[in-house]
Amino acid sequence: MYKYVKSLPYPISIKKKDLAMAKNIITQFGGANGELGAALRYFSQKFNMPDDKGRSLLNDIATEEMGHAEMVSTMVKMLIADASLEELKKAGLEGYYTEHGYGIYPTDANGVPFTASYFASTGDIFADLSEDMAAEEKARATYENLINLATDKDVIAPLLFLRQREIVHFNRFKELYDYYKSEKSKTM
Amino acid sequence: MLFDKNGMYIIGDDYESNYDFAVDILNGKIPNSVDAKSNNGFYSLEEALKRGNLFPSLYNKYKNYQPMELKANTAREKALLKIQMLDFAINDLNLYLDLYPNDIEAYQLFKKYVKSCLEMKDEYTSIYGPLTLDSVTDDYEWSKGIWPWEEGGM
């Protein structure tokens, strides 16, 4: 069962409107390396994990990622607050506005909507955990690109936090992968 | 080298096709955050949330960016920030303990943080309203107040 906690994992307060940055950051909600895909990937894969370590780690990281999806969406919402139509047009967001108004919708930075084909659930723990490690590295790389583009400290701070979480998750997935490999080698 | 001084990946003229990553990692020339299973202590609650990492052994700095100061203006934000720090440390210990459930030191810290977090959430709820639906207030306050995605929501 899932229960909501009425706070973000890391405090976010963005006062400076930046539509170009909103257009970029939304990819970490609905893009190929985004938080929604991460949450659904580990949520789907957890059902096939073979032991306590795998079941708990995949379950708990999936849950954390949902909180990150909310963080990214919150950043976008704050970055586009009170934007005029002229400003939206200037930032190349008229297509987004046509489809979604001022609403939040999971797309990548180019407006491509989220799809479940961004992730796999193969039923094979080694294939799944290899994908999970790659996913964390790809998300880290995307956050670094976003940090390179960002100029506002209030935007950079949560991006640094989210980048660091990718590093921790990568390590935990790798530890689990290595553990399963060593267990498997004992049986051969 | 394949990395510049900022840790950025480069392929330049001096790229060697037979470059051996493993040798540089073994010699400590490339900061390796991968094999940091060994747990050499924890950051403080504030430091951990600032960095997004409770474990100094796993911390990986990006370029020259320093962890930024956490901002809380009102009394409510200050109280919530303390809860966020505890929630964060509990979450990071949770992931660690999933893999190493027999680490007594980590579990002691986990228990300590869970206990203080429950106390702080009770106190917070009695003043500012519920953070979760399993806390009871005199009137129905769940739907009221600032939501996390609104300014000041945190």
Keyphrases for this structure?
heterodimer, A: 188 residues, mainly alpha, Ferritin, 8 helices, 65% helix, 0% strand, B: 154 residues, 4 helices, globular
Description:
The complex is a heterodimer of chains A (188) and B (154). Chain A has helices at 19-25, 27-30, 35-45, 52-79, 85-90, 94-100, 125-149, 153-186. Chain A is mainly alpha-helical and 188 residues long. Chain A has a single domain (19-109, 121-186), classed as Ferritin, core subunit, four-helix bundle (Ferritin), CATH 1.20.1260. In chain A, helix 1 (19-25) packs antiparallel against helix 4 (52-79), helix 3 (35-45) packs antiparallel against helix 7 and helix 4 packs antiparallel against helix 8 (153-186). The longest helix of chain A has 34 residues, at 153-186. Chain A starts with 18 loop residues before the first helix and ends with a helix. The model of chain A has no long low-confidence stretch (mean pLDDT 97). With 154 residues, chain B is mostly helical. Chain B has two domains: 1-32, no CATH class; 36-154, no CATH class. Helix content of chain B is 41%, strand content 0%. Chain B has four helices and no strands. Chain B has helices spanning 21-26, 45-51, 75-99, 104-128. Chain B is globular and about 45 Å long. Mean pLDDT of chain B is 83; it is low at 7-38. Chains A and B meet through helix 4 and helix 8 of A and helix 3 of B.
